Amino acid sequence: MVAVYAIIASLAGSLAAKEVLDVSDLTAPVGVGALAGLFSAVLLAMLMITYHTNPGEPPKLHKKR
After folding, report:
1. Are 14 and 40 in contact (CB under 8 A)?
2. DSSP H/E element including 46
3. Residue 44 contacts by C-beta under 8 Å, 6 or more apart in sequence?
4. pLDDT (tens digit, 9 = 90+) per residue, 9-30?
5. Considering the entire predicted model, what is its pTM?
6. How far apart are CA 44 and CA 54, in angstroms?
7. Which residues cross the membrane (predicted)?
8. Do 12 and 39 meet the contact criterion of CB atoms below 8 Å apart?
9. Tens digits of per-residue pLDDT, 24-61?
10. Cα gap 52→46, rounded to integer Å
11. How many CB atoms lie within 10 A of CB 33?
């Protein structure tokens, strides 16, 4: 589950950084990487906090039918 959260955070952070830089008209590749890393880290932190909200209970996964 943590790996899935990391993938989601990475993709969403990268897309958010691209959108922010498109709006701001900055073209520096360093800016894209820095913002993508920042957004990904923040999203992953929020997803992990959500995952560990009830530390005593295992995550509830649905069974395949």
Report:
1. yes
2. helix 29-51
3. 5, 6, 9, 10
4. 888 888 888 888 888 877 778 8
5. 0.66
6. 17
7. 26-51
8. yes
9. 877 778 888 888 889 888 888 888 777 766 666 666 66
10. 10
11. 12
Which of 15, 17, 5 shows the shortest CA–CA distance to 43?
A: 5
- Domains of the chain by residue range: 1-53
Inter-residue contact 48 to 2 (CB < 8 Å): yes
CA 61 to chain centre: 21
CA 36 from chain centre, in angstroms, equals 9
- What token pair was written down for 38? 């920042």
pLDDT number for residue 59? 62
Separation in Å, CA 8 to CA 12, 14, 55 = 6, 10, 22
How far the first Cα of the chain sits from its last, in Å, is: 20
